[in-house]
Design brief:
This protein is α/β, with parallel strands linked by helices. The protein has helices spanning 47-54, 124-146, 164-175, 190-196, 228-236, 260-264, 279-292, 295-300, 310-318, and strands at 6-15, 18-27, 36-44, 70-78, 88-92, 107-110, 115-117, 156-158, 180-184, 200-203, 219-224, 238-246, 268-271, 302-306, 325-329.
Length: 333
């Protein structure tokens, strides 16, 4: 593709008194610096992307910018030995879509150490059905296992189980033989959670009351996407020596708890970070995702939108009108 040829992008202008989003065009000459250029096949719509598109929170750190914190595609230019033209690659995180032009474009130029190879047997669309949410979910699962949690440990709780992270976590854990209890506020999604392998389903309202320092022991381990009161209640209900992997703040950034779960039950709280986690861990995580999630499971939790429609769907996501994972078909008109 000639460097001055134009291609489609979604571009955001984010300023204190103005937030403007438009489907427009740019050329390879307009792309930000990097040693690898990728023809983007698919991206995805994450909560952070929705905030960037709508301006409901200041997640964009330079303007104008192409959002899209995830993408999968094919290398078309490379100035590094790490990747060759024709290689299939995935990108998640690293500030892409926040401070560096992201995946809502037909081409993206990035640093080679931000990329991981697409695992054998995985398509670009499957990779974006997984995306940052799936990477975060599998990092949670790996953290639990590295801290001694096994299928014999007991019940595993997953909060926000119908969301992107939660649904993939349920599928990964159940597929590995764990007994999973899924917490959700969407009673209409019970059948989906059963299909993903949840052994039990409870209403998230059980974690909405003012938390006690300690409550009845219920969980051997937990993956929490909510934070705040939800996480405080989860901590109070952990078994002795229980492990909690915390990866989200859907309920808030605060944590209204006490030291009681930690010093009286030996509970361990592990923070999960997926934006700049080391490449070796990323590769391990993607290999686990390639073997631990089937295309059928991903199809159950995934919907597709066109690039031109991503702005409208972002508003629906923030209004609680979407579920599971949303893949953005960048090439399709």
């Amino acid at each position: 593709m000639p460097s001055d040829s134009e291609f489609r992008v979604v571009r955001v202008t984010a300023e204190p008194d103005r937030h403007h989003v438009v489907l427009t065009t740019m050329s390879l000459n307009d792309l930000m610096p990097g040693d690898v250029t990728v023809q983007v096949k698919y991206s995805s719509l994450n909560y952070k992307d929705a905030l960037a598109l709508t301006g409901r929170a200041p997640v964009i750190r330079r303007s104008p910018l192409v959002p899209g914190i995830d993408f999968a595609g094919v290398v078309v230019e490379s100035d590094t030995a790490a990747f060759s033209i024709g290689d299939d690659v995935i990108l998640t995180g690293w500030g892409v879509g926040e401070s560096h032009d992201g995946g809502y474009a037909e081409y993206a130029r990035v640093q080679s150490d931000w990329l991981v190879p697409l695992p054998a047997g995985m398509t670009h669309a499957m990779a974006m059905a997984i995306g940052t949410a799936g990477l975060t979910a599998v990092l949670c699962v790996l953290a639990l296992e590295e801290n001694g949690v096994s299928p014999d440990s007991g019940n595993i709780l997953v909060t926000g189980a119908t969301g992107g992270v939660g649904s993939i976590a349920v599928a990964l854990l159940s597929g590995a033989g764990y007994s999973v209890t899924a917490s959700t506020g969407r009673v209409e999604e019970v059948s989906l959670l059963r299909e993903l392998g949840a052994a039990d389903i409870i209403n998230r309202s059980e974690f909405s009351e003012s938390p006690r320092p300690l409550s009845r022991s219920r969980w051997a381990a937990a993956i929490d996407v909510a934070g705040s009161v939800t996480l405080a209640n989860v901590l109070s209900q952990m078994n002795y020596g229980g492990i909690v992997a915390a990866c989200g703040l859907a309920d808030g950034m605060d944590l209204p708890t006490t030291v009681a779960p930690f010093i009286l039950r030996g509970v361990r709280l592990i923070g999960i970070e997926s934006v700049v986690c080391p490449s070796a861990l990323r590769n391990e995580a993607w290999q686990r995702l390639a073997t631990g999630l089937s295309a059928d499971v991903l199809d159950r939790i995934t919907s597709h939108v066109l690039l031109k429609d991503v702005i409208a769907v972002a508003n629906k996501m923030l209004d609680g009108q979407t579920k599971g994972r949303i893949v953005v078909d960048v090439e399709s008109l």
